[in-house]
Amino acid sequence: MPKQFVSRRQFLFEAGGGLSGLALAYLLGQQGLLASPDVCGAGNLQTPFTPRKPHFAPRAKAVISLFMSGGVSHVDTFDPKPSLRKYAGQPLAGKGEIVVRQGHPGPLMPSPFEFRKYGGCGMEVSSIFPNVARHVDELAFIRSVVGRSNDHVMAHYELATGTVRMGAPCVGSWVTYGLGSENQNLPAFVVIYDAHGGPFGGPANWTAGYMPAVYQGTVFRSAGDPIADLKPPASVSDAEQRGRLDLLAKLNALDEEKNPANSELAARITSYELAYRMQSCAPEAVEIEGESEATKKLYGLDQSTTEPFGRQCLMARRLVERGVRFVQLYHGGLGIQNIDTWDAHENIADNHTRHAAEVDLPMSGLITDLKKRGLLDSTLVIWQSEFGRMPISQRGVGRDHNPGAMTIFMAGAGIKGGQAIGSSDEFGYKAEEQPVSVHDLHATILHLLGMDHTKLTYRYQGRQMRLTDVYGVPIPQIIA
User: Does 243 reside within a domain?
Assistant: First the structure.
């Protein structure tokens, strides 16, 4: 092996760094500030998810995101448009070039659903959401959200990461990077998706992107063991497993020394330890069978139609109750496209009636349960989809994609309910009053969690990166 020579300057620099590190460790120890090793998430255990202070006093500690995959039609749910009935059968005129995704554009088509006023605020809601409608005085509807793509995958990425390209960290990763978690025995960021499968775009929706891989979402199953192969074989004792993990940690540490920039390796080391602690905590966290019959009924677990999403919503409540920071639920999976998602090209009435029936009662139950347990004030609940749908028909009965206008609602976190923020035009084609970008939406979420979106940064390729890029203004009516 050839000899490696070190210059005097390099030797002094490296030796000095080591001596200064020893001195710092000694001083911190003398002042009682040196972190001590710990086990199983107790005491002073330092992990990437150790709780961190926000920039200012937060109004929410946790987020539950309810994502309806496929593109919910705003004009058939929470943004009533009487003009669609008045001008039914006429072309959409005076709006410039009408760009559709799949072709077959038709005339203006009224909603097949009736809208009724609910609550003290008199908010109008579609007949397919009778249970959610009972909560309108607690919901803030943003009727002027604008996306940048009419493609499912790209639109999913934008709502998740702020960009239409894959590879950027998602909002759940940014939140856990900024705040850590209140429970070191469970993942800080959990994803639970539809029994029919994952959403458009797959795991890139919960990726950590250019951040350390440890901040990516952890997928839980809504039935059975939350994570496959989490429990060790019965023949392996706890001491044996602990010994294996310790040996594995030493081997991984040697590799980490050789590859300090490999965040996947660091994430793997962290995940092994987290998995060890989760063996006793994760099963209990999602063990919903122990809930009362009244609670199960509240979420619709006694009905075959509502049971799958009801189980997801109940798991979300249990997770935030135990300190998980961000829970992402998906409804609509890539089983049979146009049937198992909200992608209503073929028949808006059939598609939205079926899927609303699956989620309406569970979402209502979630809001009721969070409020009853005193969790709603400290939890942000956000309902969203990747885009809205066209006011014109597709083949006479369906609706095509429309990123020009969509409706999102928020609840909890001290948000004033019973209000409609912004508006789309008379037909619901484009956002008109107070357009809200996805960057604005993300800035609002971070603000409610006590973070200034301009100060939450991660250095990558020589630039201080942000979830909101160089844009975004928190929605004033939400943060008021």
Answer: yes
